[in-house]
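We now fix the convention by which a protein and its fold are recorded. Here is one such record, which you should read through line by line:

>
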Amino acid sequence: MLTAQRACAALAAQRLVRASVSSAHTHCSLIHTSIPRQDQAELHPEWASLAKKQLKGKNPEDLIWRTPEGINIKPVYTKADSAASADELPGVFPYTRGPYPTMYTYRPWTIRQYAGFSTVEESNKFYKDNIKAGQQGLSVAFDLPTHRDVGMAGVAIDTVEDMKMLFDGIPLEKMSVSMTMNGAVIPVLAMFIVTGEEQGVSKAKLTGTIQNDILKEFMVRNTYIFPPEPSMHAIADIFAYTSKHMPKFNSISISGYHLQEAGADAILEVAYTIANGLEYCRTGLKAGLTIDEFACYITANFHKGSYFKVCMHEHQNYEGTHMELCSKQKHIKQTRICFTF
């Protein structure tokens, strides 16, 4: 019976994934055209002359290497390499330099260790130790009880009491909490809200993110519980609830990370993440929400591979391309869509 149910869910998921694949091909071509991929990357002539002497006559162009995405990486860059780039500012549409004017110069990135042990007691102690060491945010790893993985891949949370013990002694009015939960997203979020209330913290003051990215589960992770349609309905419900009652909480984290772990290169990762992001936006709109009500609580999670420059370009392209596509579909009205990474 369980096998039959999963088969039905898989068939239903194919429709959504097929739509994402079609969208991803379009977005992939957009991203390909925006990334520099010259067959002959020109080197700075003065530097090339100096390098040739140091290399005892060898060609400095041999130092150019190519990423898996086909992008040529030169050994040295100068201001001439960015002369043709658009002069954009952070906090200004299409937000390719970030959604906020001051970005990390005012508020540094929150670095949090993704962790969860078998029991709430072990996990709570680990979180407290990290906070004492200077960590300013938490990232909770949960177990997968519906996949015969109780207390193995993360912490087991079965009741509100478990959730209360998990955050015992941790002030939720001050601590941002990221929760990697997708299939059981509604009960876990509900227990987190109750835990905050038990601490005297209203849900309006809770900060953090719930992953809530079910399309990625159907595509590469396979830890979904419900079929696609009710799963997407739950996402729309969370959009509606959090936008109304939890203004400091991010209702979804669209995850490209898992796609690259499953074999995609950086370009495919961005393309599929954009496709999924647009589908989530459509889901919110179909539920009767306006884009301004929920889009500023959408975040994204990307793979930080070995190539820093590619990662930065990847993030910029996600931000800018998603904004432009939303604009073309007349989704954006007044407020900006804010993506964080």
About this structure: The longest strand covers residues 137-141. The chain is about 45% helix and 10% strand.
